Amino acid sequence: MKKSILWILMVLLGVTSFSTEKITVYVPSSMTFLQEEIGQDFLDKTGIEVEIIGIKGIPARLKLEKRRPKADIVLGLSEINVIQAKKDGTIASYKPKTSEKIMKKEYMIDEEWYTTPFDFGSLAINANKDGLKNMPSSFEDLKKLNKQLIILDPNSFTGQEFMMWTVAVYGENWLKFWEELKPAIKTTAPGWSEGWAKFTTNEAPLMVGYATSDLYFDEKSSYKSFIPSEGGYIYIQGASIVAKKDIKDGAKLFMDYILKDKFQKAMADKNYMLPVTDIKLGEEYKRVPTSTKVVRVKPGDLERIEEYKKELIKLLKK
């Protein structure tokens, strides 16, 4: 009898000693590299296993799984995603213990901490100088061109953000700008990858893209990006805890972890995004264009984003 009780205790202790808590993190498909980059490090530091799953359409998946959430954390939420997720009740508030590492208040998406910023990107116009007679420097310059610009479908993430950039610059006259821009458009690509393929095979010398695209080329390359003089536009990616009855301690630890140097460096080195904390970047980042003037979208315009997309798509089809 005593041996049986001892055996049971040993088994129980063995399970306790060797079992590992696991959290599931939904990320955009482009960020599955995180499994290799930070998975083992997070396990080593916390004793918690993390499973990174690439998802296309994270906000929709959150809503679909609201009653029985499968994820503990979601990464890659935009400002409009957060507004909608809060309304749907699919994300929970949590302020990371490492929150003081966030460099600027401007990076904050939500003051109630329903999401935590972990990186940001700056949109730009990518240019191949060899294909241009004169290098443009503004949105107004783009309007003077003839079939030299690749844009992206407004339903794609980058296409949507570019549309909102023009809303931020031109306000209620944003659609008029697009009417005047139409002659400059060579083609509309479904998404960034398809647009990049067209751009780098010289289908057109200009493309809507990112400031960090310059990292793909060396300093002597004819490919250079610029931020229009009307003002730069940054988009911020947030991480959130998924709202569920029992939130794991590991989920909170992961939210603390995303602001630590290892994770922030992975965003810069592998995701070509800029960190929200003060980590040292490689020398190559000095080639990335910046702007002293930054424009932001008004909250009211963010809530009308679906309406704006329909209007723009209708205009582009004419």
Description of the molecule:
This protein has helices at residues 2-18, 34-46, 58-64, 79-88, 139-142, 157-170, 174-181, 192-200, 249-257, 261-271, 299-302, 305-317; strands at 21-27, 48-54, 73-77, 91-92, 116-128, 149-152, 185-189, 206-210, 223-226, 234-242, 274-275. The protein is α/β, with parallel strands linked by helices and 318 residues long. It folds into two domains: 21-120 and 236-280, Periplasmic binding protein-like II (D-Maltodextrin-Binding Protein, domain 2, 3-Layer(aba) Sandwich); 121-234 and 288-317, D-Maltodextrin-Binding Protein, domain 2 (3-Layer(aba) Sandwich), CATH 3.40.190. Strands 1, 2, 3, 4, 5, 6, 7, 8, 9, 10 and 11 form an eleven-stranded mixed sheet that branches. Strand 1 (21-27), helix 2 and strand 2 (48-54) form a beta-alpha-beta unit. Helix 6 (157-170) packs across helix 7.
- What is the overall number of helices? 12
Question: What pattern of helices and strands is seen along the backbone?
Answer: HEHEHEHEEHEHHEHEEEHHEHH
What is the CATH topology of the largest domain? D-Maltodextrin-Binding Protein, domain 2
Radius of gyration: 22 Å
Question: CATH top level of the largest domain?
Answer: Alpha Beta
Counted beta strands: 11
**Judging by the overall fold, what is the CATH architecture of the largest domain?**
3-Layer(aba) Sandwich
Task: Quickly count the domains.
Answer: 2
Gap between N and C termini, in Å?
84 Å
The CATH H-level superfamily of the largest domain is Periplasmic binding protein-like II
Oligomer: single chain
Mean pLDDT: 91
- Shape call: globular
Q: Could you tell me the strand content as a percent range?
A: 15-25%
Q: In percent, how helical is the residue content? A: 25-40%
Low-confidence stretches: 6-18
What class would the helix/strand composition place it in?
alpha/beta
**Biggest sheet architecture:** 11 strands, mixed
